[in-house]
Write a structure and sequence with these properties.
By secondary structure, the chain is an alpha+beta fold. The chain has a single domain, classed as Alpha-Beta Complex (Sufe protein. Chain: A), CATH 3.90.1010.10. It has five helices and five strands. The strands form two sheets. A three-stranded antiparallel β-sheet has the order 1-2-3. It has a two-stranded antiparallel sheet with strand order 4-5. Helix 1 crosses helix 2 and helix 2 crosses helix 5. The protein is globular and about 40 Å long. The mean pLDDT is 93.
Length: 143
Amino acid sequence: MDSNLRREIILDNYQNPTNRGLVNDDSYLKVNTNSESCIDNLDFMMKIEDNKVKDICFDGEACAISTSASSILIRSLIGKSVDEVRNILENYKKMINEEDYDKDLLGELNVYDTLQPNRKNCALLPSVAIDKMLGSVRDGRKN
């Protein structure tokens, strides 16, 4: 991907993130995640119904990489089954860690395929949060 296009996508998702703002709804799972090496401190909420991700939202303070990764990841996951979400997250983590992954599966998330090592944790933060929420779900129901 062209580096100018990469910067444009990241900046746009930082300045105008998808689903920013939390909801007051007890049917959502909620988790906080933060970085020890950056300002990132984000709350994530996710609603799962019938084994599908119906909604994900987030809020908090974070750098451009964490905020934009949250925005793009959320957009990529809403409407997917829990298994599809797990597959996307696994491939996303492999990409960030420079392992073999399914590039076609990740779509716009491919903008993070050449991050500087000190920015990888920032890009992984939203996937860690979503993984935590999925860990409390079995077969689409809260444990």
